Amino acid sequence: MVNEIRNICYDTDLNIEAYQFLGIMQKFPNHFHDYYVLGFIESGKRYLTCNNQDYILNAGNITIFNPHDTHACEQVDGKALDYRCINIEPNIMRRTAAEITGNDSLPHFKQTVLYHNELAASLRELNLMIFEEENDFIKEELFLFLIEQLIEEYSDTIPKSFSQEPTTEIKTACAYLESNYAQPITLDKLSELTELSKYHLLRSFTRQKGISPYSYLITIRINNAKKLLEQGMSPLDVAFQTGFSDQSHFSNFFKKLIGLTPKQYLKIFQNNPKPLLSMGEEI
Q1: Residues 161-173 pLDDT 10s
Q2: What span, in angstroms and rounded, lies between the C-alpha atoms of 139 and 239?
Q3: Which keywords belong to this entry (predicted)?
Q4: Which has more pLDDT, 31 or 155?
Q5: Confidence class of residue 282 from pLDDT cuts 50, 70 and 90?
């Protein structure tokens, strides 16, 4: 017998729900929701009917249900379903879409299924961040960029263009990140400082700097972390000195950017204060 797991988590930062279904064999009859559902298939195969159209769903597919889209689904070939989704109330979608498009209207998504779409990775990451109770603004940044791409590519809403890049405002944001990297930083604070909407700030910052605000912040934190490790400070102390919520969070980002764990990096400087490393040298 298949063990079913059904988890739900409400994110108070984004005001959206996240669902995780594992090993689901249940058949869902024709129904609808009064909110948006952005889901993706992790594993399994399903037959879906939505608005009188038939689909076969496989791992890697994204499903998009507008409010009141009628849909039903059931398993295919006896395979259980592993599925994650986020549910967005219309008032939250309206507010988010207004930031992105400049239009005070609800988007209507034209495609129910996106096959093997690259956005599945972003949707999965956002779902995981909600369940892991991520409190850095990377979660909000990811949410806004995800909704932006879905609206631009798959809805009937046309975003308004922003003609001028606010260079002064982006310099202000950079200066704040550089001076306050060790403290908790929110997208709300950056938006307040620059007097830009959060979406416009994210888009303008990324266009000008070639990197998102959160990635910029992490780079600053890691660069300062390197200096502290070079001075012999323990990875645990470095993590908290540079603004990371815990050592695991710090270690993951450090290895992603530097290619070594903090302990490996520290060991280099403990063994040799002025190491000379070649690209091919093994650690």
Answers
A1: 554 455 899 999 9
A2: 20
A3: DNA-binding, Transcription, Transcription regulation
A4: 155
A5: very low
Query: Does the CA dihedral 25-26-27-30 come out positive or negative?
Result: negative
d(CA 236, CA 251): 9
Amino acid at 216: Y
Cα 125 to Cα 214: distance, rounded to the nearest angstrom: 15
Superfamily for the 5-154 domain? Jelly Rolls (2.60.120.10)
β-bridge partners, 86: 18, 38
| Beta carbons of 124 and 84 less than 8 angstroms apart | yes
In CATH terms, the superfamily for domain 226-271 is Homeodomain-like (1.10.10.60)
Give the residue from 44, 48, 49 showing the smallest Cα distance to 81: 44
Instruction: State the pLDDT at residue 34.
Output: 84
3-state secondary structure of 24: strand
